[in-house]
Amino acid sequence: MTTTQPAPTTDGPKFYEQTWDLSYKHALGETTSKFLGALTEGKILGRRCPSCERVLVPAKSFCDRDHAGTTDWVEVENIGAIEMFTIVYEPFRNLPAPPYALAYVTLDGADTALVGYVRGIDLTDKERAIEALAIGTRVAVKFADEPTGTAADYWFELPDGQD
């Protein structure tokens, strides 16, 4: 197979366009199954690493730091601090219509961050949205009225009275 590469240029960025459309059936395993099942009960569960004592959320079977198998289940609080966020203003297939925000939040009692959508903030005013989602901002986990046992069962909002 022969591949021809474009000649290098200095007059701007080059682009390579790809389209991937994949369906994948995940084998969840015991740990992820229990984590997702807890969401239907309005709970966020983590697992403790016996080696470094961290509580990993979402729950993982093995510690990402020292590769030890995790042991005890730990229910963490439904409130925490934003560690990182992004606001999406461009559309992506199979995702919500923009604008929408995603944040990594370290919940109280956890040592790692959980990713989720952020709701209840006006994202049309970029400067105010960035201010509202600043690193360290406290947010609360909210749960769907009719959970399905997926990551869509929860999202983050500013705590009541903190608009």
Shape: globular
Biggest β-sheet description: 5 strands, antiparallel
Helix content: 10-25%
- Cα radius of gyration in angstroms: 20 Å
Percent of residues in beta strands: 25-35%
Biggest sheet, spatial arrangement of strands: 6-5-4-7-8
Helix-strand pattern, N to C? HEEEEEEHEE
Mean pLDDT: 91
DSSP helix count?
Answer: 2
* Ends distance: 59 Å
Sequence stretches where pLDDT stays below 50 over 5 or more residues: none
Protein structure class = alpha+beta
Task: Compute the number of strand runs.
Answer: 8
Quaternary structure state of the chains depicted? single chain
Tell me about this structure.
By secondary structure, this protein is α+β, with helices and mostly antiparallel strands. The chain has a 5-stranded antiparallel sheet, with no helix packed on it. Strands 2-1-3 form a 3-stranded antiparallel sheet, with helices on one face. The chain is 11% helix and 27% strand. The longest helix has 11 residues, at 29-39. It has helices at 29-39, 126-132, and strands at 44-48, 55-56, 73-76, 79-88, 100-107, 114-118, 138-143, 154-157. 22% of the residues are buried.
